[in-house]
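Recap quiz, item 2
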Amino acid sequence: MEYDFRKIEQEWQVRWKLNKTYKVFNDAAKPKYYVLDMFPYPSGAGLHVGHPLGYIASDIYSRYKRLKGFNVLHPMGYDSFGLPAEQYALETGQHPAVTTEKNIATFRGQLDKIGFCYDWDRAIKTSDASYYKWTQWIFLQIFDSWFNRITNRAERIAGLVKIFETEGNLQHACPGDKVQIFAAQEWNNLDEKTKQEILMDYRLTFSAYGEVNWCEALGTVLANDEVVNGVSERGGHPVEKKKMRQWYLRITEYADRLLEGLERIEFSDAMKEMQKNWIGKSQGAEMDFAIRDHDQLLRVYTTRPDTIFGVDFMVVAPEHELVKQITTAAQKREIDNYLTYVKSRSERERLAEVKQITGCFTGAYAINPFDGREIPIWIAEYVLAGYGTGAIMAVPCGDQRDFGFARHFNIPITNIIGSYFNGEEANATKEAILQNSGFLNGLLMKDAISVAVNKIEELRIGTRKVNFRMRDAGFSRQRYWGEPFPVIWQDGVAIPLDAVELPLELPHVDKYGPGPNGEGPLANIEDWVNLIPNASPKERGTGEVKRETSTMPGYAGSSWYFLRYMDPENTQSFCDRKASDYWGQVDIYIGGTEHAVGHLLYSRMWTKILFDLGYIGHDEPFKKLVNQGMIQGSSRYMYRVSPVIITADGFDQALLPYIFISKSIADKLELEDKLAYENTMKFAERSLADVYGDWVITITGISILKTHVDVNFVDGLELDIDQFKKWRNGEYANAKFINEDDGTYICGVETEKMSKSKYNTVNPDILVDKYGADTFRMYEMFLGPVEQSKPWDTKGIEGVHRFLRKLWRLFYDEGKGKLWNENKATDAELKVLHRSIKKIEEDTERFSFNTAVSTFMICVNELADLKCNKKEVLENVLILLTPYAPHIAEELWNRLGNSNSILDAAYPVFDGKYLVESSKEYPISINGKVRANINLALSLEQAEVEKIVLENEVVQKWLDGREPKKIIYVKNKMVNVVI
RNA sequence: GCCCAUGUGGCGGAAUUGGUAGACGCAGCAGACUCAAAAUCUGCCAUUCGCAAGGGUGUGAAGGUUCGAUUCCUUUCGUGGGCACCA
């Protein structure tokens, strides 16, 4: 009776489905536990072995928690809106809904083979109207909210209107327009449109103008992804910045709450660090500089007001509105040229560029209010309009980028930090005593900061200011395949749809190309966009009425999906409060670090808003986050020889034969090995002669081209030449090879991202077919820690498969049949069992699945050595194994005579009494190096140990008659003799 | 460029709190079983010197703290991820 994994796995998958083994109910009898995987986008390429890594980890943890007596919610669904499907639609004309559905079916099929315990009845798709109805509904709630900085939470707009009507906005500075200040009476006298415009500056989702990547040739807005080196990825057309009306999430209002919340959740320090840096809270000062010959003031933000006397120039963002006004006639041309250059640059490029310093002098001068010095005002791409005030005061002796700039443009540098500045590079210290610094002279820099700010405030030329690097999040896309905004525009005022009008369904389009003026494809559907006034439930007046034609970004649907799983079929609300109160936070969230600052910040923000508005009872969505590493591809390379040929008339390039040389020969050529070169040349000549016959062909040289070859027909490093010849419809059928001496072709290796184009993807289906899901699951875990990135190599999978077969052989023998019995277990057997229970439980708890798999192997090896076939022991091993290899565990559990599912068994309880030891083999070190081992009773104290150790032959030899300086004895660890 | 992670045998990795570096597995080598192969089992397997006993070296590199460092600190190099419209 052998381990027939194909039959076992298929049978159990069917039975689990029929018995609804994974169905989860929202009942409170058991303690709840919520395990969540990051929302996948169903890509057309299908799964490769890297994708299920996190899913297997969460599946193991879910099953483990269930065995431990929890009611476990472990759902899966699809983040099914997104750019790739739309891109595919543009290319093939197929509707994204159709291709997405197809991709989902593939995805589901692949997941099912691996035997996950998802409750598929709770599956959701963000592109389903029944789902995005609620995404739109939440959008409307956010639209109807503002952030009250006094109560520190989101509140309804109606409340804000009341405040304006009674006290104006004196208590509530406008986040969108800082100069907007009015009293109650002024507010009451405003017309409706102006009122709405002001309210827009408070709303937590709002519409305003922002810059996008505009590609004139394609007539469309491009994602950063689609812009490569300043031109469009498709077609290579120029891309420039363009201002367009956009929707935003006012996430900056939540900056402090997002920072504070980090204290209460279990994310890795690295993850928290990334979010903190993204939010980028800094303390500093804003101050105004007068500009020579102008009335306007130049406002800068600085975190180092102590360096005010070291300011040698100002740098203003090229987009800054003052630039046009202050540029002198003499500099105008140069500035215009520079502005054109900057327009073509992406933000990333602007910030990353350090080698090539660019900038341009405006001709204007700011006045230092403390010493009256005239400071030249420059513009440079490294200052962005969106950060701070869009202008900085440059202190070359203290800031490296300012220093480089000053050097490059020959701007004289003032040293205010004495010997701390060496003239060769800037020094950002806060420890220097200030010099050349007027009233700050003699002060330590870190003390001078507040002295300087106080003075600035006293002179009323600036204020203390907390600044955030984070910006409001762009929330609209000029695309088709996303949630339509439930908003109508009338006379420039955005009017939200009524909740009863939701969902606003995505209309069908025939073409996916952009609309007019860079609008999204929806703008092309005139009868959808243009509405008849007064036709809807709300009074809409008589003006021009149009729908918003942008759609929401990918992160809209994924910012709240974890709530929908709790109550997926609810038609009355996005999630019943009872359900969200029961399930609460996601207890464990597993996913990649690539979401560190996008999804993980947006979903935290949405949760906080829903909490503030009273729809849910918790304000952090994820209690604990585990980051899974990436599985990288291990690419294989072939070395192709291209002969350089002098051709004659009528030479047919198409006949050129493929010639490949094995790795060691390529290596030799690389080292300019003469013999290898000549041999290769001769080989190439002969190969050409075979093809071209009589043609006289002279080869003048060869070049080597490294090309990817599909890893699926390379065994280790050795190419399967027959398979290779069949690749790509026989393109290489006549390829010629120079092999190694033993006749094999050896490929080169490199680790890189797993992707189709690199031919290094490995499909899990093939492995599951060949070895079974249980083997596949355990092997993925065995590869290494979940958190770590590692290259995939299929080779080792045999070892895990052998382990499962060995486990099977503890129960059944191919020849003898049933081996398991009901005999009483010995102490030695129980010791193996309990040691395994302890280690596997600990390892599973701390997500150290790779070491748990090792422990299973050790356990089975030891039980096999002990010839233990006892049900008493094996039954417990099966329960331990269930989370990792559910099919084989269930099958053997069943064969042991159990009628219930092993998932409803009780997890074995560790009992320390089987592990008690009275002595230990201690390593004895001399000066930290182990020289001997002595078996010592654990009860011994320092003095007794010293005596025994000093009597030891090896120790005496090393002492060589000397007295030891010290003997360190750490109970249950080691002994170190210091000489 | 900035932020984060990471670096240990031929390979994936282990060493959980500063305490025997290399568990477990792959690959490799030798052997048993077999007509043979597969499967299975046994042994060896960081490197170097040595017949051996035993010794030297060794966790990317260079320093440091410590009786003792893969683990802590400083500097530095390589690789991977993110950087606001991929999801």
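The domain at 282-468 of chain A is CATH 3.90.740.10 (Isoleucyl-tRNA Synthetase; domain 2).
The mean pLDDT of chain A is 88.
End of item.
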